[in-house]
Amino acid sequence: MSESITYAAAGVDVEAGDKAVELMKASVARATRPEVLGGLGGFAGMFDASALQGMRRPVLATSTDGVGTKVAVAQAMDVHDTIGHDLVGMVVDDIVVCGAEPLFMTDYIATGRVVPERIAALVSGIAAACETARVALLGGETAEHPGLLAADEYDVAGAATGVVEHEDVLGPQRVRPGDVVLALASSGLHSNGYSLVRAVLASAGWELDRHVDELGRTVGEEILTPTRVYAADLVDLLRTDGVEVHALSHVTGGGLAANLARVLPAGVLARVDRATWTPPPVFDLVGRLGQVPRADLERTLNLGVGFVAVLPGASVDAATTHLQARGIDTWVLGEVHDAASAPTQDGVEIVQGAKGVDGGAVQVVGEHPAGA
């Protein structure tokens, strides 16, 4: 008779999973809110929603995402906490786009082999970013998938829920011709376009530990820079006296033009000028090293613009003061025009209908300043 097969022999280490939970408890405990009920380890996370009773017409907003192939960079460098920041930013910053305050988040980690310290590092990053965003990390799951993933491979995903008063929902219905398009600087590549970036580096034969003078550090350190988490700063901006915001856009997959077009109404065109900013060196490096066409770069990477606010001109100064006090550089990218009379540039693509949204249009014109 053949030997008996245990769960551990099949490649799943329950004790390692339990150790990982113990290691992450302290960091998860800091990512909380007063509305959280119960503690870590329950079958479901619980959130006291009684505060919503004071709202006139509460609208729940939800989002889910991962960080794509950026995990391959983290695994190659054996640095795992920054991926947690990426995950939170990609999820909660989508929620604030509609004006909602993110309330709580859950995460899911799938790995070929549970290494408690690695899982704890991942979750500590998630928890730290949740704390920054004032979001409760309400629960999560770590799944060991031997035979499906290699021992040191993993992937992460997350989901979050927020709430906004119906009358405060942001979006195309508020945008008007004459509104200003305000850019919020990114912290770097964020978490989109890594299949392109990795292909460029591989084609050039560049290793992640290669020091690049123009970056001031190794290429691996540069491209592993965590995604900026904007949520709390933007929620506070929406509550700031003297600031009226009509729409927000998170610049992720698809680039600046496509994501801005998603929050504009039909019948308007936003004209954005490249001359208003210089993309950080990493974007120029990827473009030059891979001879990537500009159109492809702009459809894939954020080029230094991580978020966009569309607001009346009268609110620009107050919004800029608020955001720059929080360490977020801002600048005016352009303006929203009536499409019928917009000053467009012949021969330059007009982006419309991005991500299945039949809304407004965006034209990106001009050239970045010399040296970009």
Explain what you see.
- InterPro entries: PurM-like_C_dom, PurM-like_C_sf, PurM-like_N, PurM-like_N_sf, PurM_cligase.
- Pathway: Purine metabolism; IMP biosynthesis via de novo pathway; 5-amino-1-(5-phospho-D-ribosyl)imidazole from N(2)-formyl-N(1)-(5-phospho-D-ribosyl)glycinamide: step 2/2.
- The protein has 372 residues and is an alpha+beta fold.
- It has two domains: 15-38 and 57-165, PurM-like, N-terminal domain (60s Ribosomal Protein L30, Chain: A, 2-Layer Sandwich), CATH 3.30.1330; 172-365, PurM-like C-terminal domain (Phosphoribosyl-aminoimidazole Synthetase, Chain A, domain 2, Alpha-Beta Complex), CATH 3.90.650.10.
- 31% of the residues lie in helices and 24% in strands.
- The protein is built from eleven helices and 15 strands.
- The strands form four sheets. A seven-stranded mixed sheet has the order 10-12-7-13-11-15-14. Strands 3-6-4-5 form a four-stranded mixed sheet, with helices on one face.
- α1 runs parallel beside α4, α3 runs parallel beside α4 and α8 (255-261) crosses α10.
- It is globular, with a radius of gyration of 22 Å.
- The mean pLDDT is 92.
